[in-house]
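Project standup — Tuesday

K.O.: blocked on the structure for the chain from last sprint. Re-posting the sequence here as requested.
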Amino acid sequence: MAFARGKFGVEYNTTRQRDDGSSGLGWVFAVVAMVALVSFAWTLARRFVDERNDRDVEQRIVAPAPAAPVPPAPAASNAPPPAVAGTPPPALPVTLRNRPVKAQNLLMRLEEAERRHDVEMTVSTIEQLRALPGSPVADIDDKLARRLGALNVLRLFSERNGQWVKQVTVKRGDSASRIAAENGSTLASLARLNGGNVDKVVLGSRLYVMDHPRFNLVIHRRTRIADLSLNGKFFRRYDLVGEVRGETGAYEISSNPRAVWRKIGVEFRPADRSELELLMPAGARVLVAEM
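H.V.: unblocked you, prediction finished:
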C-alpha cells in the first residue's frame, strides 16, 4: 500500500483498491437477467400472435364465387332468394378448435376446396367429415348437410353430374314423358335438365335425363326435418312446416304427390315441395320416423 504526503501533511492512499472478483460476478448476473427478460418477452409475444391466429382461423369464412346480383325477396316472404344458375352457394364457416387432428385436416381441406371453388372436392370432403367416427363435427353437421345438399342440386342440374345424369338419343315414337318414364325420372326433371322446354322432342336429338334414380325421403317427426337420399347416399335436407300429423311408417309417392303429403300429414315450404315433386318419381319411398 503506497501513501503520499499532501500539502497540509495529510497522507493519501494512492493505490486503487480492487474488488476481489465481485465486479466480474455482477456482470454475469446482469447478463443472465437480461437473457431471462428477453426470453420472457419473446414468449409473451409468441403467445399473443398464436392466440390472434387462432381467433382469425375460427372466424374465417371462405368467400364464395362471385355471384350475379339477385333481387331481394319480398319482405313478406320467408323463402330464400333464388340461386343463380351455375353459382355455388355460400361457403361454410370453418372452425378448428378442440377437434381431432383428422377433423382439423379435413376442415382445412374443405376451406381450400371452397377457396378454389372446387365443387367435387368440397362434396367429397363434407362426406368424409360427416362419416368420421365419434361425430367430431356434430356441432356443425346440420350446416354441412345443408351445404352438401345445395351443392348436390347444383351438380345435378347445372353440371349434369355423370353419376346421376346420362344422355339419350330421341328415337321414333319417343315423347318427353315416355323418355322420363323409361329412365325412372320425372317429366319436370327432364325439362329442368334440358333448359325447360321439352314439349316437342326432335328425332335424333340428344337429351339429358336422370339415369334411374332411387330417391328415398326420411321424415323425422321430432326434429321436423326431412332427408332425401339418392341411390343410397344423402342428397338434400328440407325443413318441415309445423308438426307431422301422420303415423310413422312407409309410404309411396303416387302420380299425385300432394295427395301423399296430405295423407302423411306433412307440410313443406312451397319451393321445397316443388323440388321434391320435381325429383321424386312415382314409386319413390317415403318413411316417417319418430326421431
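K.O.: great, moving the ticket to review. Strands lie at 3-5, 11-13, 165-169, 206-210, 215-220, 225-230, 233-239, 249-252, 285-289. The helical segments are 22-59, 101-115, 119-130, 141-157, 176-182, 187-193, 257-264, 270-279.
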